[in-house]
């Protein structure tokens, strides 16, 4: 290992402060910027306006973004073609272990030294997925659930590396201001059936009828608004209306009997702006039916000391330990081959959990401390170092 030279590490996903993969990419750059072994270089175009950093943060990643622009420019003559790199390559993988798209100029990248990084929710894998798995020296799974599923498929070269949180931003502290009065309930994640916003609205409606001071604060917007168009939320809830190209969250709440003034739609919020918002929350609620990873927003809420309610399924199980959160354990199976392992949270249990945190401040303080203590082990720097060590083990013999 001592003889390994520092070389480019090309990674094939986005960099942004506004969505999960992008936050992963941004932290990969930040925490490997001074690495003695690798220089991380994104293969996908980077929109600098989608990155929210302070001056020192920009100074640390600026040279790497310049290298990325040079690398991507060098791909231009091979637009739409296959290119085999002489460097290590990290490929972001999704359903069926399929590489993501978005590489500059539509180039398809390959390397003799490839590692896959996967977050998947759909369990419908075909034979081609096993064939693709053999291309990678190692596959990094973003949750214990993803790791277990892949091993059950007969793919042994899988290791788990969980995501992290920026502990310089996300930590317990008093609210800087009070913009959101009342009993504030936070819910985050892009609008789609998998994230369970329909369940959150239904549970909040019942809770608000008991406690008119309750306020639902949502961060449900993302670059992929079209997921909210899918009318698969079921018959119990009116479908989400649209306005100006995105889901009208307060309109959706009103269509389901929730006063518009009881819901605050935050819109698109960059990751570094979230701590100030989270610290004003009394509770965070995540009724997700499935998470391929560990749910960054849930981790960030817990890191800020917000008592958090989590559906006890899939990737959330990596966060559920005694005294760290309130788990929603009454999980109904969703009977479809693609959703094996998913869970449908029980509305009554959701309302009961909100009621416990409304009534019992001792419990709320205990979960606040326990959740924050758990997240102290999830710093991005440590997680990226873990990833780096797995790469060294894969590339050095």
CATH T-level topology of the largest domain: Rossmann fold
CATH H-level homologous superfamily name of the largest domain: Glycogen Phosphorylase B
End-to-end C-alpha gap: 8 Å
Percentage of residues in helical conformation: 25-40%
SS class: alpha/beta
Largest sheet: 6 strands, parallel
Order of helices and strands: EHEHEEEEHEHEEHEEEHEHEHEEEEHHH
CATH architecture of the largest domain: 3-Layer(aba) Sandwich
Q: Low-confidence segments, ≥5 residues, pLDDT <50?
A: none
Rg over C-alpha atoms, rounded to the nearest angstrom? 21 Å
Description:
β14, α8 and β15 (308-311) form a beta-alpha-beta unit. The chain has two domains: 7-164 and 379-395, Rossmann fold (3-Layer(aba) Sandwich), CATH 3.40.50; 183-375, Glycogen Phosphorylase B (Rossmann fold, 3-Layer(aba) Sandwich), CATH 3.40.50. The protein is globular. By secondary structure, it is of the alpha/beta class. α8 (296-303) packs across α10 (361-375). The protein starts with 6 loop residues before the first strand and ends with a helix. It contains eleven helices and 18 strands.
Short description:
It contains 11 helices and 18 strands. The chain has helices at about 20-30, 55-75, 125-135, 145-150, 195-210, 250-255, 275-280, 295-305, 345-360, 360-375, 380-395; strands spanning about 5-10, 40, 80-85, 90-95, 110, 115-120, 140, 160, 185-190, 215-220, 240-245, 245, 265, 285, 310, 325-330, 330, 345.
